[in-house]
UniProtKB/TrEMBL annotation:
The lineage of its organism: Bacteria, Pseudomonadati, Bacteroidota, Cytophagia, Cytophagales. Gene3D superfamilies: Hexapeptide repeat proteins, serine acetyltransferase, domain 1. GO terms for molecular function: acyltransferase activity. This is Serine O-acetyltransferase. Keywords: Acyltransferase, Amino-acid biosynthesis, Transferase.
Length: 277
């Protein structure tokens, strides 16, 4: 039997919390924006410029209304909504470049439409670019809510503070982690299970550069771990699968992990299979 004191304790906890952020509505608005920017994602493509203009106006109004519910904004909600909406042309251009980078690198990709509608790497990158734009403007908590929404849907965890350059390609992507202070250049390709992380997670390092810098035209294969705020991967380098890297490498490097693999075969298929490590 729950006690009345427990109920009173929960009531005090609820009363002490400021107004809840409109997280679910904001994530739904982000999905709606992607459908507006990319008609391949829309249930019903808009057929006239007037229809598109009306949807853009609706998006701006809805964004302003949701931002008005957020405490401690760095600027008035309408001004922030106007500023963000004005960036939509540049955002769409950046995301088209991301999609084109995926198409150019993935032999399984059949076209931009497939990438825009079904590739988790593109979706995670799109929501990151939205979250990063809000993070740059100092909005509290909403950018992280958006990045965690993408994380839940794709298995790709990108902190909204991470700086990612043009033509970014995530292939597969499940288990990818990119930390808050990571800096990624242009034309970088990253596979599943990669971690761009910190060497230490002590609280005293908050506000410092804790995550690596990846320069332009770098490929990082599956399972690689690159750690440290002073670690720099030079341009046009290739980091092989399962590499553990905590120091910088110069441009045009090839870094790989060579495991010892032993293969044996029993010629008698009826023999008992016994395996020991």
């Amino acid at each position: 039997m729950l006690t009345s004191s427990f109920a009173a304790e929960l009531a005090r906890a609820h009363a002490s919390v400021p107004d809840a952020l409109p997280g679910a509505a904001f994530c739904a608005l982000a999905d709606g924006l992607l459908a507006l920017l990319f008609p391949q994602r829309a249930e019903r493509p808009l057929l006239t410029a007037d229809a598109v203009a009306a949807e853009l106006y609706h998006f701006r109004s809805e964004l302003a209304a949701l931002l008005a519910l957020v405490p401690a904004l760095p600027a008035p909600a309408p001004a922030l909504a106007d500023e963000f909406t004005a960036q939509l042309p540049a955002l769409r251009t950046a995301l088209l470049r991301d999609a084109s980078a995926i198409l150019a690198s993935d032999p399984a990709a059949q076209g931009l439409g497939e990438i825009i509608t079904s590739y988790p790497g593109f979706y995670a990158t799109a929501l990151h670019r939205l979250a990063h734009a809000l993070h740059q403007r100092g909005l509290p908590r909403l950018p992280r809510l958006l990045s965690e929404y993408a994380h839940q849907r794709t298995g790709i965890d990108i902190h909204p503070g991470a700086q990612i350059g043009a033509s970014f390609c995530i292939d597969h992507g499940t288990g990818l982690v990119i930390g808050e202070t990571a800096i990624i250049g242009a034309n970088v390709q990253i596979y599943q299970g990669v971690t761009l992380g910190a060497l230490s997670v002590t609280k005293g390092l908050q506000g410092t550069k804790r995550h690596p810098t990846i320069e332009d035209h770098v490929v990082i294969y599956a399972g690689a771990t690159i750690l440290g705020g002073s670690t720099v991967v030079g341009t046009r380098s290739i980091i092989g699968g399962n590499v553990w890297l905590t120091e910088s490498v110069p441009s045009h490097s090839r870094v790989y992990h060579r495991a010892h693999i032993q293969i044996s075969r029993n010629e008698d298929p009826a023999a008992e299979l016994v395996f020991s490590i």
